[in-house]
Automatic annotation (TrEMBL):
Protein name: Pyrroline-5-carboxylate reductase
Entry-linked InterPro entries: 6-PGluconate_DH-like_C_sf (IPR008927), NAD(P)-bd_dom_sf (IPR036291), P5C_Rdtase_cat_N (IPR028939), P5CR_dimer (IPR029036), Pyrroline-COOH_reductase (IPR000304)
Pathway(s) it belongs to: Amino-acid biosynthesis; L-proline biosynthesis; L-proline from L-glutamate 5-semialdehyde: step 1/1
Subcellular locations according to the entry: Cytoplasm
Source organism phylogeny: Bacteria, Pseudomonadati, Bacteroidota, Cytophagia, Cytophagales
Gene (name only): proC
Keyword NADP set for record: yes
Domain Pyrroline-5-carboxylate reductase catalytic N-terminal: 5-98
Organism, scientific name: Marivirga lumbricoides
KW Cytoplasm (keyword) present: yes
Reaction(s) the record says it catalyses: L-proline + NADP(+) = (S)-1-pyrroline-5-carboxylate + NADPH + 2 H(+); L-proline + NAD(+) = (S)-1-pyrroline-5-carboxylate + NADH + 2 H(+)
Pfam families xrefs: F420_oxidored (PF03807), P5CR_dimer (PF14748)
Domain Pyrroline-5-carboxylate reductase dimerisation: 161-261
Keyword terms of this UniProt record: Amino-acid biosynthesis, Cytoplasm, NADP, Oxidoreductase, Proline biosynthesis
Gene3D superfamilies registered for this protein in UniProt: NAD(P)-binding Rossmann-like Domain, ProC C-terminal domain-like
PANTHER family: PYRROLINE-5-CARBOXYLATE REDUCTASE, PYRROLINE-5-CARBOXYLATE REDUCTASE 3
Amino acid sequence: MQHSIAIIGCGNLGLSIANGLIKTPGFDVSSLTLTKRKTESLSPLKKLGVAISSDNLAAAESADIIILAVKPFNLTEVLEEIKPAIGGKKQTIVSVATGVKIQQISGILGDDIPIFRAMPNIAADINESVTCICGINASEATEAAVKEIFNSIGLSITINEDLMEAATVLGACGIAYVLRFMRAMIQGGIQIGFDAKTASDIVNQTVKGAAEMMIQQPIHPEAAIDKVTTPKGCTIVGLNEMEHHGFSAAMVKGVIASFEKITL
């Protein structure tokens, strides 16, 4: 990665992206600048050679690729703040702010600026995020550079902008859905006899194995479930009990409820 990168707004998501980049083999930490109003929490990264600042404009001026990881309601203010730095050397803007369209960003910065929307999740922290990306005004080289960043912290998928809100729900909110499911499994494991750590270890590896199986053997989940459910067995009894209580329906309704909230 030869580009200088500024991550403006290092809250949970911005910091996860930064941590993922730092852990990427061969990544030059000196090419990374992080900003936050109160920089004390970023001091451990400063010791690694990352530039830390509270000056968004200066960070934008020094970067080729600017990742805006601020809250959606702060994005306009930050765009106005960094606008004087944009355009001279055609920096690339990447917004991870939920719900803010590219047109809104270009309306402030200009119609000829390469602008991307990206939606990673907090698994970027361990280089296992999924990131959906869309953009305008970018050359093939610029698009490749942006995808390289997000591929280094997991997997990137290019989509149309009209699917970005759906991508936010499925990929970014979705990690919370999975974690809630895992918490419930751990609670069940404790109830049937395991201590909390052992239950957690079993559930963590089980979920990891299920996901990896779906990645390496691209089959429908039901086809894999069929391998586990034997006639009159304990697995099908458990699955049927969950479905009687609305397991799948609750999951679908939760996804739709999040989507309806984000598209208000």
